[in-house]
User: Fold these one by one.
Assistant:
Number 1:
Amino acid sequence: MHALIFIKQVPDASQVRVNYETGTLIREGVPAILNPFEAHAVEEAVRLREKIGGKVSVLTMGPPQATDALKECLSMGADNAYLLSDRVFAGSDTLATSYALYEGARKIIELEGDVDLFFAGKQAIDGDTAQTGPGIATRFDIPLVTYLIKLDEVNIGKKYAIATRLTEFGQETVKTPLPAFFTVEETLNELSYAPLPWLIKAAQTEIKRLSSENVALDKNQCGLKHSPTKVKKAFTPEKRQRGETLKGTCNDLAKQTSEILLPFVK
Amino acid sequence: MIDIGKKDPDKTHYKDIWVFVEQTNGEPQQVSFELLTKARELAEKLNCKIAAVSIGKSVEHIAEEAFKYGADKFYIIEDEVFSDYRTEPFRDALSRILIKYKPEIFLIGATTQGRDLSGTVATELKTGLTADTTQQEIDSETGNLMMTRPTFGGSLMATIICPDDRPQMSTVRPGVFKAIPKETPQKGEVIRETIDIKEEDIVKKILKKVVSNEGNINLSFYDVIVAGGKGMGSKENFKMLENLADLLGGTWAGSRKAVELGYVPQSRQVGQTGQTVHPKLYIACGISGAIQHLVGMQSSDIIISVNKDENAPIFDVSTYCIVEDALKFIPKLIDELKQNKKINTQ
């Protein structure tokens, strides 16, 4: 079994502050973290490897600092970590990003062998677009299973998986041939603590680097210039103001509130 | 994959606004009509037509509603293979019809299905896709669609354009725009498209469907969310929030703290590591309002907060602040609402 997880290092969105004077984000001192959804993808792949054998590779596209997120994946039990980093990717939108990651993944397949299961988080907590995973799956033309909450069965010999995903109205269980692409929910599993030997191994594992030098890239599909979407402007939303404080006894408060709620009562 | 055709690279050949009408078992999603309503406003600026498109086993009956909300034409693809939503056949069918008819703008609801589908279709069409837009306007100089969306958990708004590629694609979350029927609806044209996809060509099979949200709930489908935090004190006390939510036709949820304490399942967690919601009404009970929680709910229309501590950060984003113990207040509120209801139904 070979699993490849696409991960992203993101600023901890909860710690990003807005400077309302200048209308910009204050990102200094904001820690960069592994996108929480992808931590669960790594966890799932590592558990699968412990059960049926094989290996787990992780890939990210980003600046050199993104190695921290890769190291975290290694300490969670991933076997190989790849950093795809190049200036040509600067300013990539989701279409250009899925292209770059697709080419990076093809290189990993060349180096490490065929991949049976591709994973990514259901979305990244900074951009929240949920587009990159489906984009990569489409480029590989393999089945896509989004919002994964349970990997019921994986059969590498017979090349299929049974998986349960969230839908609008509940859940559905699908059978898909492998290779397939899964985007995962946090409820997929509970993160576990890595045993010490993994941590030691992780510290000794080198992060492998990919760039336009060793990956065949069509530069006409990379970076800001070749991204169909552009940011025209960014601005801070109006800050919410503290509203009315209701006054009176608990009974009074309940009365006033029930009047406010009147339009909602079914 | 079936042959979806070759995309016309000349952007001047693209015109009209198309809206994807999502349906499940023939039941259309309200967000589709919200998008058609918005499309009317955009079409007026662009002086163009509006088309709706739907894919399913049987969708023709949706035509009347599509016309009522603004569609001039309703394109349908009906086939047994589209009985249930599956990414690949829907992607191929939709990509092909978009390549064939070349709309300038294509809008999809940012539902679970819409998000699954839009990313794959945009990749097929090699065009830009802007997710979860909350504002859409036409740039009067260029005619481009300006799509504004929140990012960084709502801390920053970004206006995105897709100047050179067509169609300009965008998803919009349910409830962001209002669905308003046309005053004088006109009967449009239903255009039936066929596509040759056979069941044996589709590799993904649905084995089982569970139509119950317990355990895994999509909070964003509710107009009213009653959420509780540490201040609720116990799992049992969440029953009152459930009762309150029932009275208001909503659902209940919790903060991360409440999840950690075992009061609420993780599937009902609101916040950075849970779900982001923007209902019409959010009632926060015994939630202090850590920033991780606020980023998940602060764009709700009305926020009512109940907390003993008058300095709780939750009040800084609240429309109405109630400084009181939620455990005392909520039962009283429920009594009041029940009484009002009785009076109204008598």
Number 2:
Amino acid sequence: MYDIKALYQAKSTADAVALRQAHPEAHIIAGGSDVLVQMREGKRAGAELISIQTLDELRGVSLEPDGTLRIGSLTSFSHITRDPLIQKYVNVLGEAVDQVGGPQIRNIGTIGGNTCNGVTSADSASTLFAWDAVVELTGPEGVRRLPVQEFYLGAGKVDIRAGEIQTAILIPKESYEGCFGHYIKYAMRNAVDIATLGTSVNVRLSADKKTVERARVAFGVAGPIPLRAAHAEALAAGQPVSAELAERFGQAVREDINPRDSWRAAKDFRMHIAAESAKRAFTESVRLAGGDL
Amino acid sequence: MEKHEMQYQTVHFNLNGKDVERTVDVRASLTDMLRNDFRMTSVKKGCEVGECGACNVLIDGEAFNSCIYLAVWAEGKRVRTLEGLLGPNGELSDIQEAFVEEAAIQCGFCTPGFILTAVEILESGRDYTDDELRKLLSGHLCRCTGYENILRAVRKTMNRRLGKA
């Protein structure tokens, strides 16, 4: 038995919003792989829960008329990985969430929960930062959309207001078109582990594949929330593709990140693997985009 | 301290091919309901935080750790446990036989969970490499045999079903 004070099961998105207003103290539970574990640990013991688990309307990936890729917030990691639209347009997101926990966790864990937790180590988060994802929230006043960078307010804190639930993650066409990316999770085990550092890079090359038009890189666990490395991105933009550029790109991320010492890894070590992972992920992204270096 | 009000709900679902219903405490996990209300004792209580895989069951064909799945969420679902693999006269299924043949079992606590993940793998009908199988089996902890025999049993059954052995 879980120490749940009361369970309110939402029957629709509108119902979930009504329940949020009626029970402002209640916690939202989606897949449960964080909420129930924290409840077991005693952190959320005695809480009221609003379950949105059964809202199938929030599952699945689709393309909106303007080309925006829409990922329902309750889409599980394994379904994201297997989805043809994800594989075609944002393959790296499917690869990143395929490294969350283990297979059973990927069947229950949702991308909405992964982001709403607000933790820097979330395997989806760095890729969503790197692809300028937009978070969609639905509340009493309707739908609100904001960049994922603004959604994260601090460690474990996200911008979900009273009465709101997250309903989708959107990736605009401009953000994914022609882009290829790679994610590197550095962890101590190959499965069921939390990232020591997560690195997500993507590039868009010129038509002749000789020049980097745009490079983006984001990290998880390089700061209290996921973050982009602006120096490295500026350094690579417009530059000819080369192995030397990959090296400089990797070194430049050191100017942007601020990892901490923790029992998982020392700050120095995280700095080191951040530069190395950025270089490798950049190299692989260029290769996927058809470049030669 | 505020007294919690008890909340019950009736859940209708299909368990190992049979439509069932039970009125359960909404605080119950699926593990609790399967063990206590249906005596499905193959569903083991291990870590109870979704790390060890001992409580794994199939829900609509996908593997889930039932310890971190609320019983009431099973409404309308098809749930399968190890008990559902037995033939009408108690015969073992091919994957269970393979676990015996390969000595992929020692104390047996992790076995039901592993076997149900193996069932999901096998029912995909795909031919996986050893690396892929290792990754697909990585959500389970075994503290007795090591994992080689388990991998061998799954691979053997996969090959047999694909007509490769």
